[in-house]
User: Which sequence fits this backbone?
């Protein structure tokens, strides 16, 4: 197609979309705000050719059928809080925001399920669950802006994975519109349902490349009414793993968080959030922020204190500080959450990798040594959700002047391959990591992904250029 | 193809397989034992044209490449304990048993994972996990015979789903051989890995129609060292749901079983296993067998007793018997497990359906009334894993003389549709329920399944005639 015939085709597609969805559901030009132009990565911002704002699943279906017929790329957009540029559209793409397809449809107390539309913010869904006496076991920093559709399309991780799994584990049913406009409604409420292929699994985590999620049935959990937090100092990474297994063996998934901080990160966090005053009198090789939860609101933390006391007595941990008040707990969490300050203080080059839990300590040592050898004087911070096998590394671009982010990515990802590690634990591939997907996936796996993509989206209209 | 050219093609395929795998790995005729001819349903027994016994993933790959080239159907077989005839081969199929591809390869204590070959029995995998101080949270009656590959291919449910989910939830990594012979090795050990499509999910529960599972990485749980069992009498199905939610809110997934028995079933179980002496002095509308587990071996059941005592005091339950000894607990479980006697005592027409938890009581009332109306004098037994939304119904064929099993299936499944229920909670579709799949799946879902099947197995050689 020539440029001018492509432009004519795009215009006629937009006209057909206005006809089908109504003019107020199709925006173009300046009527498309900044928010639709990029995500939290600020990567490759562009104003899409049009922004669709469907109100119903039928709108989504009609719109996709029109775009599929015209071979017109469509980029689904949620809260635009992604960290892999997975929802960033090009100037020739049509974006589809799910904002108007929002709201909690039902809470089924007997089944312990929440039925929700894709454009609902995570926080609104959480609040509805809590009002009904339950808890939605999915939580992340972007909760006020991110949307359920995006959470599921990216298989979001976040704060509670160690206890309740990723977004995938919360899904019982899903409604998805395929590229053809066909509505795949599998709004199952049952825990068990072995009737053919579990189709919903394909769409969860596929970043909008196989279908657009419109509704979901999510599992609700009983409320964990009490939470107690401790900061623990450890001798070595082996001691970290031993503590994780020891706590798990004693209280299972009453462990609600197990966040590890290496000293560079910890010291940075203490400097930023506690005026440099560490909760400990001396420095330690490693730090763990551990949370214990209980369904019993009257739990006074005695059991958790006893467990940590025993670990201290037999030398499994070097020191421990248990938060006595909510303010204490917040101060401890603030150290871990100093990452919110990274964009203001650093030029963050972020990694979100995963490795087998036992290998993470070696990888950190290896990675730090190699970074120091390659770029002496670099400032790098290591931390992560170790109970979930997820390590974050942030290299400060200011400390490696003249080096591109891409070069740092390539350098670190190359180190990951021998460990069988993953280039994305939770943020996804999007545009940013597509080049590095082959570090973690074999050619046979990539070929199978392409075969599935072709089977479900033969014209390749859904989020082209993302993931594969 | 004419019959004679088909026979010639089959013979040359078998010759090529002998060449590739060695003669001792390819059996034909009488060398194929009874076990390879049908599963626990005894449905459509047939001696397959050949039985392959691969020793390695490479053997599986070579064999499938040969069969794919020849368009030769292949039926994967595990322990042959299935309940849907999903592994039953026809006389013109080649069966592939994974028996020799067996053994636990590794237990990674830091990652809490078990790496296992598909032909390993569930019990062998459980024992390996226990020897390492962990627990494999998958358990079913067939544990001594069923194999991990079959458990995953059918997404097995079983005894611990309420606590730890189905087989799917235990899988972190999977190795699968596709119809082409391509080896899809995704032997991931990480809790989080968002690098493209989660391919393993497609093969779990697809009953060998998309690929043959050869190895898996399974998640291990800490050991639940104490178990306490109670039999509870309840006023109504609403009281059942209230008790489930009440216990869940107080102790989360420390509830290890929540099995409901309607009076017909309970009385039958008591007659068979306890000489007719019910643990209760009077009859009740419903019975629940409830198990409470703890990671703490020293848990003396006090907490569970307190919870049940409170429920008794405020009228939430009518009566409760708590097992004081292991023998007591076994006696209570024996009532629920009287199903083992069904084949000897009845002509069982079995249903394994699921419905939203809140609807199960209505469905049972409705179903019983309709059965009585249609076939007065029928004997039907209702029971199930209600915490998992799974209801079992067994109609005794002897009580509906002259009525085919098929007619009873069709009658009950037709009642299920308005509830959004599933024709298979855990046993799968196989051959037996293929005709009824459309009760639970829409035409769009079936079309998507067919598209995926074609994409991954274009010649349709893998377990043809099963599921879709």
Assistant:
């Amino acid at each position: 197609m020539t440029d001018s015939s492509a432009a004519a085709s795009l215009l006629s597609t937009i006209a057909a979309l206005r006809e089908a969805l109504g003019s107020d559901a199709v925006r173009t030009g300046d009527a498309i705000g900044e928010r639709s132009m990029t995500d939290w990565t600020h990567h490759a911002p562009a104003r899409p050719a049009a922004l669709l704002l469907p109100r119903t699943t039928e709108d989504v279906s009609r719109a996709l059928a029109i775009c599929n017929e015209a071979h017109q790329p469509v980029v689904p957009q949620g809260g635009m809080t992604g960290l892999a540029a997975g929802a960033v559209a090009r100037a020739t793409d049509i974006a589809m925001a799910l904002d108007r397809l929002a709201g909690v449809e039902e809470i089924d107390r007997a089944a312990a399920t929440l039925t929700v539309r894709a454009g609902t913010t995570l926080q609104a869904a959480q609040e509805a669950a809590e009002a009904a006496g339950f808890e939605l076991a999915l939580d992340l920093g972007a909760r006020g802006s991110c949307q359920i559709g995006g959470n599921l399309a990216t298989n979001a991780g976040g704060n509670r994975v160690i206890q309740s799994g990723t977004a995938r584990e919360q899904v019982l049913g899903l409604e998805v519109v395929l590229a053809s406009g066909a509505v795949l409604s599998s709004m199952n409420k049952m825990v068990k349902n072995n009737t053919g292929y579990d189709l919903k699994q394909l769409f969860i985590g596929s970043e909008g490349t196989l279908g657009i999620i419109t509704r979901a049935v999510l599992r609700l959990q009983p409320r964990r009414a009490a939470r107690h937090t401790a900061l623990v100092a450890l001798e070595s990474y082996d001691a970290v793993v031993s503590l994780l297994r020891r706590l798990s063996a004693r209280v299972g998934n009453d462990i609600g968080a197990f966040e590890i901080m290496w000293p560079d990160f910890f010291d940075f966090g203490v400097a930023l959030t506690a005026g440099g005053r560490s909760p400990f009198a001396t420095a330690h090789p490693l730090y763990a922020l551990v949370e214990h939860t209980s369904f019993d609101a009257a739990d006074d933390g005695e059991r958790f204190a006893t467990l940590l006391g025993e670990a201290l007595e037999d030398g499994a941990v070097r020191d421990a500080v248990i938060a006595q008040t909510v303010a204490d707990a917040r101060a401890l969490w603030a150290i871990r959450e100093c990452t919110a300050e990274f964009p203001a203080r650093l030029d963050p080059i972020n990694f979100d990798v995963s490795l087998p839990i036992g290998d993470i300590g070696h990888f950190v040592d290896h990675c730090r040594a190699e970074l120091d050898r390659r770029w002496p004087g670099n400032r790098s911070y290591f931390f992560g959700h170790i109970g979930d096998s997820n390590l974050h590394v942030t290299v400060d671009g200011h400390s490696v002047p003249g080096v591109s982010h891409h070069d740092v990515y390539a350098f670190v990802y190359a180190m990951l391959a021998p460990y069988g590690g993953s280039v994305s634990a939770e943020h996804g591939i999007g545009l940013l990591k597509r080049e590095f997907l082959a570090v973690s996936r074999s050619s046979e796996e990539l070929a199978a992904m392409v075969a599935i993509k072709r089977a479900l989206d033969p014209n390749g209209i859904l989020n082209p250029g993302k993931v594969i």
About this structure: Chain B has a mean pLDDT of 96. The longest helix of chain B spans residues 3-21. The radius of gyration of chain B is 23 Å. Chain B is about 35% helix and 20% strand.
